[in-house]
Amino acid sequence: MNFKDLKNLYELFEIQSNKFLKNDFLHSVNDDKSIKSHSWQNVSKKVISISSFLKNKGITKGDRIMLVSEGRPEWMISDLAILATGAITVPNYTTYTQKDFEFVLEDCQPKGLIVSNSKLYKTIFDAAKKINFSFEFVISFETIKATENFQQIRNDNSSITCNCDRKDPACIIYTSGTQGTPKGVILSHGGILANCEDSTNLVKNLGIRAPRFLTWLPLSHSYEHTVQFVQISLGAKVFYSPVIEKLLENIKIVKPHVLTAVPRFYNNLYNKMLNTAKKATNLKRKLFFKTIELGQKEFIGNKLKVREKIINKILNNLVRKKIINNFGGNLKAFVSGGGPLDKNVGIFLNSLGLKTLQGYGLTETSPVVSCNPVNKIKIDTVGTIFSNNQVKIADDGEILVKGENVMLGYWKNIEATNEVIKNGWLHTGDIGEIDHDGYLKITDRKKDIIVSVGGDNISPSKIENLLCLNDEIDQAYVDGDNKKFLVCLLVLNKNFLRDDKKIKDIIEETNKELTQIEKIKKFDVVNEEFSIDNELLTPTMKIRRHKIKLKYKNILENFYKN
Predict the structure, then answer these.
(1) Going by DSSP bridges, is the β-strand pair 425-434/421-422 parallel, antiparallel, or unpaired?
(2) Which residue intervals of the chain bear CATH 3.40.50.980?
(3) Domain 450-558 has what CATH class?
(4) Taken in order 80, 82, 85, 86, is the CA torsion positive or negative?
(5) Which segments of the chain belong to CATH 3.30.300.30?
(6) Does residue 252 sit in helix, strand or coil?
(7) How far is CA 534 from the centre of its chain?
(8) How far, rounded to the nearest angstrom, does the alpha carbon of residue 223 sit from its chain's CA centroid?
(9) Taking the model in full, what pTM does it have?
(10) How many CA atoms lie within 13 A of 468 on its CB side?
(11) Is the dihedral of CA 509, 510, 516, 522 positive or negative?
């Protein structure tokens, strides 16, 4: 398939559905561990039915339709149906508050709503009522009064034509609003296709025919939203696991080849595996840590001695194979995105045979800019730059990106668009460098950088990630802008009884890995976790620094009074 010949995302799906026809495509994992499957042919028929319904409702090119649902086959079907009409999908998080929905409704004025359940429908309906907004129609996956039932929509059309080209908008994805009001990022058909081309080639290098994906991240996030088109490109088998609590259980059922996740998942996995190993029998514990020791040595490029090679090969069967079997036995790669992956976590996972690829991107770049190749991983980098992107480093170290994958702009916000796109180059807000092998490395976040009273630039996320690698600490916030030293607020694990001496020890151990200007001098524990509900976390689970700073203003100021 030549991606550059494709006009739009629906055409990509149409080609693949005609190719694979009766092959299984979309699957839902039920509570009783059974799996319901949908063939390419059946998915195509349903896409055409929903798309015809939308056209009969007067939906035309450029209209916006809000899509709110957990991950499930109906999500992809709805997205494709919207795109087939030439309309624009506006995916929203299921974790949005009423206030969040009010903002989106006022901002982009969607004509219709496709929603999964009655609880979400009520929240959105209340938001619409408050601002005196009304939808022209509502489609629901469950039976809800006054809505059209998704399952009952039927149409006899055998095909449908999408009249979009690569420059047309495909979706509006709202940023998480870490620095304030969210902005609607307009991504084009061509931008997602360009990203899809490079991502597809990356997965193909794993050497898997019809790879199995387990989708559990929100499809409203640009990362997972683009992944679904990668899945289409690969002719993949896609399984949905919307309940996070059942993720590890479902991994064993689905036996995926590829699992995409955010750094928090890998941090939790790291802590869980270490704790399990520490509680194991003496022999098992020794074998586990020997596997890590030799695996790390090999991964970072140090040659193993003959005896070490033999032992390492034995450990492949005794330890690594068993670990991979815990993830279904087929796993070829973890792919990490959505934030910086701790280097130690990455080395740890790779040493155990869990190949982990770190990538980098933004919502504004559709989203991937770079990713580590399968055959040569540099875990302290975010990999080589995708072929459809151009990247350069500005004089101040900021990463600039140009290419078809760069957004069309922010919805109805020319001023904000012009602030970040200058002469065709997107100013990412990230600081980085490109090494001699062409690998991109992120060193700082321009907007989040703490500038000390001495003028030193400090990255708080680096310190926060190190603190959260400790099982006792769930969340951390580091502060100290224009101050003589750094301080932090900690949210403790619910299973950990507060012990200030233990916390001090953790901070002291963390400080050993930091430079003098990065060391934490004072701390406090807050009882309320950072969450979406209290607006201290974004829907993508990133901390809202300005909100935390405001909420805990008195505590933070008291750190510096003595």
Answers:
(1) antiparallel
(2) 3-257
(3) alpha beta
(4) negative
(5) 450-558
(6) helix
(7) 22
(8) 5
(9) 0.85
(10) 23
(11) negative
Taking domain 3-257, whether its CATH number is 3.40.50.980 is answered by yes
Q: What is the pLDDT along the chain (562 residues), one digit of tens a residue?
A: 899 999 999 999 999 999 999 999 999 998 888 999 999 999 999 999 999 999 999 999 999 999 999 999 999 999 999 999 999 999 999 988 898 899 999 999 999 999 999 999 999 999 999 999 999 999 999 999 989 999 999 987 888 999 999 999 999 999 866 556 789 999 999 999 999 999 999 999 999 988 999 999 889 989 999 999 999 999 999 999 877 788 889 999 999 999 998 887 898 899 899 999 999 999 999 999 999 999 999 999 999 999 999 999 999 999 999 999 999 999 999 999 877 888 999 999 999 999 999 999 999 999 999 999 999 999 999 999 999 999 999 998 899 999 999 999 999 999 999 999 999 999 998 889 999 999 999 887 777 778 776 767 788 888 998 999 998 999 999 999 888 899 999 999 988 888 999 999 999 999 998 888 899 999 999 999 999 889 898 877 788 888 899 999 999 999 998 6
Identify the CATH class of 263-329+332-445. Answer: alpha beta
| Residue that the structure tokens 């559709």 belong to | 366
